[in-house]
Amino acid sequence: MAVQTSTQNFDVLSSVNEPLVNRYASRRKSVFAETYDPEADDDDDGARAIFPKTDEQRARLCDSVKNILLFRSLDKEQMNEVLDAMFEKKVKAKDYIIKQGDDGDNFYVIESGIYKAYVGEDQKHIHTYDNSGSFGELALLYNMPRAATIQAETDGQLWAMDRQTFRRILLKSAFRKRKMYEALLDAVPMLKTLQSYERMNLADALIPKTFAKGERIIKQGDAADGMYFIEEGKVSIRIQQDAGEVEISNLEKGQYFGELALVTHRPRAASAYAVDNVKVAFLQTDCFERLLGKVLDVMLRGMKHYRYVDQSVWKMILEACREENSQVR
């Protein structure tokens, strides 16, 4: 079976498949006709897959999934649903976890063990998982056959999630996140110049974060890692002076902060604190540079109203504005 290289590598380097028990005895002929429409699914109280776990098992699972990018945008409730739905699977050396061309039934996260990925009729080795990682999500998300074979090189431990639970949690989460953030971004004046698809891309890149009342969100003098859009609550912007911190601005829903350090490539010029419980949408530095270049001049012009920006920084901002405009043109 011919497999496109770009697809096979991505599927293998981040995906997972079904449990080994009764793998062939109970397989469906095809799952490609199955669909899931997150917009039509408004049932939050339906039956959910829950596999009881000891505290020790749950702690091990939390450690295994903490760096899985697929889960980074899930809120606490959704993450708990993921943990509830995953079941433990022990494998032996030489066991096949998935086979190229099969339907995808499960998503896997590696807790321990070494696994090798092979593609093509000649079973060319293309990747080795060494006690970490995940695989199998593309076949589940996009109703495509497995693009590679995964075989256990050693005994190991996997955590698996069934296809329907995976699709419901991940796709519904992505859908809700996009709708929520599109509404938020529509309320940000500087983003009005973005096309609809550009706002959707921006919405998909945002990461939800929460801060308790009084908690510091960013610290003056720190290196910048991104900017923030306020979803709920109020944020106090303060600068350090000889007599202590002084509040210079108070921001609320629909406003943003943290962009100055990204534009100037300098440390944070002010600190930000949660006035009450605050929810923000966080945009990482690399996404900022990739997605907001088109509105950077609007953002830069708005910075001239920042009272904590000194003349030397303002000159840098103006130069950055001119440079960005020339690059866009």
From TrEMBL:
The keyword Iron-sulfur does not apply. Residues 70-187, 190-309 form the Cyclic nucleotide-binding domain. It comes from Aedes aegypti (Yellowfever mosquito). It comes from the Eukaryota. 3',5'-cyclic AMP 2 binds at E259, R268. The gene is 5579480. GO terms for cellular component: cAMP-dependent protein kinase complex; cytosol. CDD domains: CAP_ED (cd00038). 3',5'-cyclic AMP 1 binds at E137, R146. Keywords: cAMP, cAMP-binding, Nucleotide-binding, Phosphoprotein, Repeat. Coiled coil: none annotated. Belongs to the cAMP-dependent kinase regulatory chain family. Pfam families: cNMP_binding. PROSITE patterns: CNMP_BINDING_1 (PS00888), CNMP_BINDING_2 (PS00889), CNMP_BINDING_3 (PS50042). One of its GO terms (molecular function) is cAMP binding. This is cAMP-dependent protein kinase type II regulatory subunit.
